[in-house]
Design brief:
This protein is mainly beta. 2% of the residues lie in helices and 47% in strands. It has three domains: 136 residues, Jelly Rolls; 129 residues, Jelly Rolls (Sandwich), CATH 2.60.120; 122 residues, Jelly Rolls (Sandwich), CATH 2.60.120. The radius of gyration is 20 Å and the shape is globular.
């Protein structure tokens, strides 16, 4: 693990503003409530992202330029029209000959309704679980890792309060096969914590200022030998008070940016997010409730990164994930719509980062466009959008030594960035 430790010590970051001219946000078609009666018509499916020639190491991550595979406004992906509550949309995301899971950017454009989406492999039945919270209001986006169905497809079920459009971009994928090398991805599909019924912890709400710890090895599809990190969906159910959920490894040394939730709502709403959570040697996770009232917690694991007990050189293979102690970056201020950038150590890597966004208007929705310099800018926020003060997890291509960030609103935006891990990218990305 020498390469990992050297990188952790030397991965200092410099933040600066770029001098590129301002860019305007591309206009997006709005879906109004008055259009709820519009009929939806399936059309011919769009061609999925083509995998690279050849084969890769099982479970290795491969980043691609953001490629849109579903847009219900135009019919791209096989469905045209607003998606009604309770309805599902299935689309092709890739080829099962090469892919086992894809990293997707899922967007509900303005005006987004309140509610949620469930995203799962095509050809399987919805099990009632929710993947993405819709808070309502502005453009809502989240990056999700989803296992592909046997036909390379993904299904999205709308649990929103009224019909809405859905957009999906593919940002990367994990090679198919059984992962055995350290840092390679393996899909999982299991609930590891549910305080409502005693899964993973005693059956009891987590009190104000209290914490609960769950051991992951042997639970939810995680092998008994453990993992170096997991991709998990963390949900705070109907909180009564505004607060934050702190997620750490078992001994509290690998804290990740907090999940912020809002209480005192007319209709209490579950807040959740999917993120990569690094694990310590004991393979446990601790959740601390930093609010004034008790909360119920639910955690589902969608995948994990293999831990190799031998800790051989295989842990540094191309496409492998390397966990890092979260490294904060000094806040970057974007003035209006002017672009800015994070300058990063050059090398063949993608970074797992968390962004926390603030503006001078509390509660304002913020749309961001994030891309690598060698990937063309599309003019629309196809990579990221973040709510005010809500941590957003992203995987970004940093192989060029920098990442470009563009604010798509007129107000000044402050970005607080934490780097939580990286992937060694295959050459030629």
């Amino acid at each position: 693990m020498g390469k990992i430790s050297r990188l952790a010590m030397g991965c200092s970051l410099i933040v600066g503003l770029l001098t590129s001219p301002p860019v305007s946000a591309a206009s997006q078609t709005s879906a109004s409530q008055t259009a709820a009666s519009q009929t939806s018509a399936p059309i011919a499916s769009a061609a999925p992202v083509s995998p690279l020639a050849g084969s890769g190491t099982a479970g290795a991550y491969h980043q691609v330029a953001a490629t849109r595979v579903l847009d219900t406004r135009s019919g791209l992906g096989g469905y045209r029209g607003l998606v009604s509550p309770g309805r599902t949309v299935t689309f092709k995301a890739g080829s099962t000959n090469s892919w086992q899971a894809a990293v997707l950017d899922v967007t509900v454009p303005t005006p987004a309704p309140a509610g949620s989406l469930s995203v799962y492999p095509s050809g399987t039945s919805w099990d009632g679980r929710v993947t993405m919270t819709l808070t309502g209001g502005g453009n809502i986006q989240q990056q999700l890792t989803v296992r592909l169905g046997s036909d390379g497809g993904v299904t999205i079920r709308s649990n929103a309060r009224y019909p809405t459009h859905i957009l999906v971009d593919v940002l990367g994928y994990y090679w198919a096969g059984t992962a055995t090398l350290e840092g390679m991805f393996a899909p999982a599909n299991g609930r590891v914590l549910d305080t409502r019924n005693g899964i993973g912890a005693p059956r009891a709400a987590v009190g104000a200022g209290k914490k609960v710890t769950v051991a992951l090895p042997g639970r939810g599809g995680i092998p008994a030998g453990g993992a170096i990190a997991v991709i998990a969906n963390v949900a705070v159910l109907a909180p009564r008070s505004t607060g934050q959920l702190v997620v750490t490894d078992g001994d509290g040394s690998l804290a990740t940016p907090r999940l912020r939730f809002v209480g005192h709502q007319t209709t209490p709403q579950t807040m959740q997010t999917q993120r990569i959570v690094n694990l310590g040697s004991d393979g446990a996770l601790t959740f601390t409730n930093s609010s004034a009232s008790s909360v119920q917690l639910v955690v589902d694991v969608f995948g994990y990164f293999v831990r190799d007990s031998a800790e051989g050189a295989s842990g540094d293979g191309l496409g492998s994930y390397v966990p890092l102690s979260p490294q904060p970056v000094t806040a970057l201020v974007l003035h209006g719509r002017a672009p800015g950038g994070l300058y990063l150590p050059a090398g063949d890597r993608a970074l797992a980062i968390n962004l926390v966004v603030t503006t001078d208007r509390p509660g304002q929705s913020v749309a961001l466009g994030i891309h690598a310099p060698h990937h063309p800018w599309t003019g629309s926020p196809v990579v990221s959008s973040s709510a005010w003060l809500q941590p957003t997890e992203l995987t970004v291509d940093a192989s060029a030594g920098s990442v470009l960030i563009r604010s798509l609103i007129d107000t000044d935006v402050a970005l607080h960035c934490y780097i939580t891990g990286l992937y060694w990218l295959p050459h030629g990305v």
